[in-house]
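Hey, quick one: can you model this chain's 3D structure?
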Amino acid sequence: MQYAAKQPDLVLPLSALSRLSRNSTKQLRVLEFLLAHGTTVVTTNCLLSPDTVGVRTRPLVKPDSYDLRRSMKQARGLGPTDLALNKALRRQG
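Sure thing. Here's the predicted structure for all 93 residues.
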């Protein structure tokens, strides 16, 4: 979280929001902190940033915490903003 506070426009890829915390109260506090500091959170099924919210349409992708790249490769059901960000993340490594 300290890194996110110092890095504007950070993109944080996660398999699911439960990777932040299993406790919903803590999860929302961490998510609020990240968004307040300009972080974009990308999961296999949603995109959350300070100015954009996107959700994959059907079919939803099963999150895979062990192989995040495999679940992020599935582009079906992504909106145009999600798709562009997803492609940029895949190019980064």
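One thing worth noting: DSSP finds four helices and four strands in the chain.
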